[in-house]
């Protein structure tokens, strides 16, 4: 017995210890798991997803299978089937986003044939009805620069690959489509006359060659066994000195091409000029087959008539009147005929379905008489920047607010009577509104879309999305519906930024949003100002600057119109203020500019000297580390962030104060290193004084990505080359147990040069992260959660507590009391934490978060190939009733209680009466 | 000049994320990763091949699943790759495949913490679904037993029982008799009382006299 107890005792003590430590885990993880999951019946209640495919490159109507579809291949390397009636994605295959996923060919027969990549190529066959892969084979050619001009097509069940070597010969290879078996090896056709201006119209390759004035139009069937060249003087077909060859946008009938707005066909080894005039040089021309012979379709955007379409019969040259219309209301800039299908009805009428792709990446399926069946805004597959804009309050709310908010008005007529009449007036208005709403009833309300006014919790907003093509969208965040769109063809959105310069809070002034980008051609600054609620241009409207912009910012002070001025620092270090009248407001303004390649960061101080604002370079930091490093990311704090929690309470009742420096900038640099292969350096720089607060070096690391910066903490991801895994490094900055500045005083970077206490850790991310964001709430009182978008298509919500650098390996008593989780190297990514459940989001690029009117709730929009919107509550919805709150039960209980009270009162009275009679 | 200095500093600087393009020599390209995906055992999951994607190194290379579940990822240079099968509803274990410059393959389990640990798995890969993802919390359902055994309810019901039912039972004639019997039983059973015992012990000597006299008196009467 004694022996047993000796054996048992240490084990038992160990077990107790173990239990004790496990306890913290249990408590902690149970809390996390509860706080994040959604219920299955909440699918689609707060979230929506929109699937996109990208700008359409190739499209073909599927006429074989029963379900009518359009098969499209896009610039985003996506192969997809779209429903012909609705335009929705039936199925979708996403290839690699790099050049190895480029789609070179889309061909439809009884199956879909695609060629992807650019040497090595992959040829794949897909089932037409289900979209499942049937076969695939790879092809690697000898590397040379000519393969970029190679052409693919399918002819008689054989895949033809042609590589032109300009000025020398053409290489043609023919393969069995399904197996890749090379039928007759590669044949080299001598052709010294080919050049870059040649066009292919399978199987003919056509060029203009020869000395000016004596040019020849040459064409050759590259697949025929006998080399036969058709040669004619160019002057026979055109009077212009220079011929310009263009292929048809869609051609399913006869080989042919366009020569200076003239259609030329190749029939029976002869050129044949067709007498159909092309009305516009920019028109998109298609040759399609129909029941009454081939048709020539042309479309262009006429300045006077709008979108115009015209059709001619190829044989007779007559106009086909039933196909052809103009529509001013359709805004389709630079239309391109992607696919056309024409049939005939019983009444011998042509019926055409036309898929048109415009310069703004939108695709429209148009039927007879210009009826648009559906439109896909494919620009949204490439969102560059997002801004959440508050909606204006309703007229009634505005009246109530003005009652309490009129300080100036109160001064003017401060009598009690005036205030009283105003109160009566507003209450009468409220009553009127209530009566009107009652009379209108529910029926009218259901038909109309909800008005664009702010709701009680400010959850309803407008999202302004800036896309890569320069199209700007205004989107309702609750429904995902596009409210307005604006296409700015000259806007280059590379490194473009958006600012909300005036919110809708200041009636009668409208909201004001500015996009700062570059001009497509010149690279000079291009500024677009608009009303984000309606999408109409305001203020400066579209402003072309005559200089390149180095840096831009918004002035922190608003002018009399509540408008925040835009400050632009141009290449010559001159400052422009928009509007000019705000220049005197510039005071204590600093800017920094990071040069990406030289890794030099410069700080500028902006001063107003009574006349104009000038910028002075006050500091510069060289982060190049001997010339090899370059800046990859530069992240400062979100400008609108408000922090209402200044420190952390420790278990001994003292406070650990956060270092809340609003000027802190995190700069991530990357570069090769002779010893450690690649090195990533993270540097925290004060944007005003230029002081370096901390710097961290990661050896054998590369691809630093997606830095997060908020409050007092920073995080960034990188790829650890040595261990071959993704890691996230986190930093927290603390001032210590005492504040540096008294409570309420503004932080100054120029006062005192104390370094904050930096704590840091790194964690393993057991997946490939594609994007990251932090939850944002109104006052930053709610816990911060990190949203990690993974390459698998999931967005995982992780509490910051799991990433905290204060997690110790084995927490001592105090840390344990504080609730710190012991350090674990690998981050858990449980399925419960996936906010988008099984709605997989392909090729995620960024996550945008915005606060709502509720402190608990943060709005999230994930962009990439898909758009996904949801809302998250990091500390659960503590300020809101649960959405499944049982109003019915509580009202029944209340009613029963009231009933019980009165009935017992009655019975008690009766009893008293009886007692009295006894 | 020493007055309060407010420094507000706003700057936004967007820099694109740039990835290094790996420069490859010609003979390095051309390895393939082969394998087979086993479908999840779900009868109404007919088109699972469409939802299943094969990601190598987080989407750097992508493979597609054929009708029979086999997949091939083409054109890989030699190196180490993590092969993931991505399905929205089912979890598959990722596998690390290493291809050396001679074209030899080794497949092993992914371990991000102990990266040197090798637990080999067969190659060509055989990917089987591990579990179904549990994305959703199960909503609590209202059950009578849950309600009744709720401590609050128990706390409410017990005093109610004591207040309302017990007096009623007292009024019932049968129970009254039962109670009487119980009390009688208590009287009959001659359990020595503590206080009496103590008084007996402490008052030995002085007190026994009157009792004995009383006994004598009784005896006399008899």
UniProtKB/TrEMBL annotation, chain A:
One of its GO terms (cellular component) is EMC complex. The keyword Endoplasmic reticulum applies. InterPro entries: Beta-prop_EMC1_1st, EMC1, EMC1_C, Quinoprotein_ADH-like_sf, WD40/YVTN_repeat-like_dom_sf. Pfam families: Beta-prop_EMC1_N, EMC1_C. Coiled coil: none annotated. Residues 38-145 form the EMC1 first beta-propeller domain. Belongs to the EMC1 family. This is ER membrane protein complex subunit 1. It comes from Bombyx mori (Silk moth).
Automatic annotation (TrEMBL), chain B:
The keyword Transmembrane helix applies. Residues 44-155 form the ER membrane protein complex subunit 7 beta-sandwich domain. GO terms for cellular component: EMC complex. Keywords: Membrane, Signal, Transmembrane, Transmembrane helix. Pfam families: EMC7_beta-sandw. It is a single-pass membrane protein. The chain crosses the membrane at residues 147-166. InterPro entries: Beta_sandwich_EMC7, Carb-bd-like_fold, EMC7. Residues 1-20 form the signal peptide. This is ER membrane protein complex subunit 7 beta-sandwich domain-containing protein. It comes from Bombyx mori (Silk moth). The gene is 101744887.
